[in-house]
Amino acid sequence: MYSVPKLDDYSPAALDRAIGNLRSALEQEVSAVKSEADHEALRIRWRARTNGILTQINDQWLKAAPKEAKRDVGQRVNELKTWVEAKIEAAKYLADHFEPLSDEEKAGFRERAIQAITEARVARERLDITLPGIRRPLGAEHPVVKTTNEIIGIFAKMGYSVETGPEIETDYYNFESMNFPPNHPARDTQDTIFIAGQESKPQRDRLLLRTHTSPVQTRAMEKHRPPIRVVAPGKVHRSDTPDASHSPIFHQVEGLAVDTNITFSDLKGTLDHAMKELFGSDVKTRFFPSFFPFTEPSADVQVTCFKCGGKGCRLCKMSGWIELLGCGMVNPKVLAFHKDNGYDPEKVSGFAFGMGVERIAMLKYGIDDIQLFFHGDVRFLEQFA
Ligand code: DAH
Predict the structure, then answer these.
(1) Which of 44, 144, 208, 328 is the Cys-Cys partner for 298 at CB 3.0 to 4.6 Å?
(2) Is a pLDDT exceeding 70 seen at residue 188?
(3) Sequence-distant (≥ 6) Cβ neighbours of residue 339 within 8 angstroms
């Protein structure tokens, strides 16, 4: 049985030898551990406060060392302690897991287990908490997401909830239910990206990338009976060539409110309030006649230029007004698709609106190129963090 020798030579070579002897002694004792009781005996022999081998090393090697050798011996003893504790921990694992194994399994298991556990434990002890930590840069909301959430928040305060729909839509949802009749020229204005190979399907079932968030109006009216107030944020696609103001992918927020006695005044009041929240309470709004198949009447909403206050500047092209979104009273033909779900155009009415998120973000933050949103350049993005 190993016992701790007194040292009279504290040279590095002598210390190496003494430590080497101790290590091989412990290796042998660990590999003889077969049971819980074996492990307990081992633990007491090596780690007992009074007269365990680690304590003896402390007394006989470290405390007895001459002044000049103290530093070196201290360091070695510390390392050795960690290693001994790791070994004994490994032996515990062995004691717990060894017996159920077959002889064949036992053969390789011991060595591998002891080695793996010892290494893991020693590595853990080497953790140097004085080293600087790893700083992970904090992420932030993309300006498109930030603006979308801001818009949603404004409408949430007015009682609107959020509805979503798929980006791959059928012709029915994107066009037919929005009152674009088949082959109607209004479809051409949408630069639709169609999915190929759908010719064998009826037109209404053919798939396309939604060109606007308006189909979510249909999905919302299928799901919920009136009264309804929803906003639908999301990504839309058009076959546009990218430039400073066009992108084949962009985002919209759609809105829909249907109830008894909803009037154009409600639409005006709602959007006027939303624009003041978004751009500041000084802005004024005005409504221009426009056309969308799904609203009647339809309007484009303009706000007074929030940069020059309406005097005329480059942002508003000297007009004093900026065009921001489309809206209108929901076309009775659109409501009629959902007559059986409570949307009888004789009984309820509603308004709808749709706005481009990138356009609003560009105006709000003074961004002059829509492509910047999609390049993922951190120098651009971090300005909105
Ligand atoms: N869907 C239209 C577009 O993408 C925007 C729009 C206009 C939505 C008027 C509406 C609306 O709900 O009432 O150009």
Answers:
(1) 328
(2) no
(3) 345
Q: Is the CB of 262 within 6 Å of ligand 1?
A: no
Question: Does the Cβ of 155 fall within 6 Å of ligand 1?
Answer: no
Q: Which residues pair with 353 in a beta bridge?
A: 255, 327
The reply to whether ligand 1 has any atom less than 6 angstroms from the CB of 353 is yes
Which atom in ligand 1 lies closest to the alpha carbon of residue 211?
4
Q: Which amino acid type is present at position 36?
A: E
Kindly report each contact of residues 6-14 with a partner whose C-beta sits within 8 Å and lies 24 or more positions away, as own/partner. 6/60, 6/64, 7/60, 7/61, 7/64, 7/65, 10/65, 10/66, 10/69, 10/72, 10/73, 12/72
**What is the atom index within ligand 1 of the atom nearest the CA of 254?**
12
What is the distance in A from the centroid of ligand 1 to the CA of 319? 23
| CB of 170 shorter than 6 A to ligand 1 | no
Is the CB of residue 359 less than 8 Å from the CB of residue 247?
A: no
Evaluate: CB of 326 within 6 angstroms of ligand 1.
yes
Q: From the CB of 328, is ligand 1 less than 6 Å away?
A: yes
From ligand 1's centre to the CA of 321, what distance in Å? Answer: 20
Q: Whose alpha carbon is nearest atom 12 of ligand 1?
A: 353
Report H helices in 250-343. Answer: 264-279, 332-336
Say how many C-beta atoms besides its own lie within 10 A of residue 32's C-beta: 11
Cβ atoms of 254 and 210 within 8 Å: the answer is no
Is 267 close to ligand 1, i.e. is its CB under 6 Å away?
A: no
| DSSP designation for 4 | P
Please say if the pLDDT value at position 335 is more than 80: yes
What pLDDT score does 94 carry? 77
DSSP string, 12-32: HHHHHHHHHHHHHHHHHHHHT
**What is the per-residue pLDDT across 227-266, written as a single tens digit (0 to 9) for each?**
999 999 999 999 989 999 899 999 999 999 999 999 999 9
Is the shortest distance between the CB of 179 and ligand 1 below 6 Å? no
Is the full-model pTM beyond 0.70?
no
